[in-house]
Amino acid sequence: MKAPFRWSRFAPAVAAVVAGAVLGAVGLAIGVPWLAWIGFAGAVVAAAAAAFLLLFAERRRHKVKEGELVAQATFLDSLVESMGTIAQTREAAEILEQTRREAERIFRARAQMLPPGEKPKAAPAERSVLFPLRVHGEEIASLRLTRNRPFDRGDVVRATVLADFAARAAENARLLAEAKVREADRARLSEQLVTAEQDERRRLALFLHDGPVQSMAGIGLMLDAAIGSIDSERLDDARRVLASALERHRETIRSLRDLSFNIEPVVLRDQGFAAAVRAYADQIGLSNQIQVDLDLDAAGGLAEKAQIGLYQIIREAVSQAIRRGPPTRISIRVAPLDGEIATEIADDGTGERRRRSFEAIDERARTLNGRMTVGAGANGGTAVRVVLPRYAAEGES
């Protein structure tokens, strides 16, 4: 704050100079030299005294001003240091607490960090000030400073700067924490995807080895036997062996066709999810004498990846229901649930309590960023529910 210059301090000296000059002039006018000499000498002495007082006052004022500038520079250095300390903090809550401590230190006041919207108790306006911390126009907290001496305009400006900096630092920390969570989720989902792909390859290899490969090996042996019978002219035996080999060959082709359909049915690619599930339900219903109820109205907007994943989940859940004990009725329902998409496969067969039986379904659900729950069906049996967030179910494919 600038120190005012006070001319009233020099009024006596100025009056003495004027009086000496007037006395000297009077002495000259009446022809009294000594009186004139005393008057002018007094004026000179008074002027010298006034000049000395002026120099002393200016020097003192400059020292006061220099001290104020040094104090302001020290305060600004402390403010910058406080901002550096706040910027080094990584958590949003810790940033707000560090801001409160730094405000107490640099303003020598009692500081409180109030939740957004909370109003402090009444206090003298000049001794208690409130600084809201806003991010994109939304208040995240408020910094309240209270002390015995009033806050001047400079204190208010500096505290506002500190509050704005703290708000930006807290927002940056929050965004960084969210980015870390998203990155961790992305890494986890990538690992789950790789694991699911490896498990799928393993299941496919086991199926081919234990099914079609063994059948083809048996067909080869049967053909060898048929050739041997022909060479021995045992045509009836050769005809019987060839008929068995032909039947086994047809069964192998049928199993390979089913495998191709189950991996990615043509109808799923050409006609969509609902048509593929209906075709699968018809196949299962006819071959196992099971009534399959469908409710697929909410499946129209599913993304391609969600359609493929949910189709495989439905196929796995239905296959497990048939293996546990043939049910008489299975319901497959896809419906919205609190802004998400829920798929439920329920049966009335034998209940399943072993969690490990559903690990494959759980893996597929997690690769779609969804979650799986298993419970009892409405008519006994088992109900498998997979819930996908809307952004995952209806995102870009």
Would you list the SSEs in sequence order as H and E? HHHEEEHHHHEHEEHEEH
Roughly how much helix do the residues carry, as a percent range? 55-70%
Specify the CATH architecture of the largest domain. Answer: 2-Layer Sandwich
Number of strands: 8
Share of β-strand residues: 5-15%
The largest sheet is: 5 strands, mixed
- The shape is rod-shaped
- Superfamily at the CATH H level of the largest domain? Histidine kinase-like ATPase, C-terminal domain
Distance between the termini: 65 Å
Strand order of the largest sheet: 4-5-6-8-7
Number of domains: 3
Provide a descriptive summary of the structure in words:
- The protein is an alpha+beta fold.
- It has 3 domains: about 80 residues; about 80 residues, no CATH class; about 130 residues, Heat Shock Protein 90 (2-Layer Sandwich).
- About 65% of the residues lie in helices and about 15% in strands.
- The chain contains 10 helices and 8 strands.
- Strands 4-5-6-8-7 form a 5-stranded mixed beta sheet. Strands 1-3-2 form a 3-stranded antiparallel beta sheet, with helices on one face.
- Strand 2 and strand 3 form a beta hairpin.
- Helix 1 packs antiparallel against helix 2, helix 3 packs antiparallel against helix 4 and helix 4 crosses helix 9.
- The two termini are about 65 Å apart.
- The model has no long low-confidence stretch (mean pLDDT about 80).
